[in-house]
Amino acid sequence: MFAVGDCVIFIPDGARGTVIAVNGSFCHIVWEDWFTSWEKAEELRKENLESK
Fold this sequence. Notes:
The chain is 0% helix and 50% strand. It is mainly beta. A hairpin with a 5-residue loop joins strand 1 and strand 2.
């Protein structure tokens, strides 16, 4: 499950963003280009920041 503040990657295209809201199985994401959108949680994965 995702929480506000999680860094995520959109699986289909690799875009990176930050979760700003969660509503059921959807997450509101602000992307690195400042665009925002609601995405299905199943299309997201948490970014592993420790490996950078």
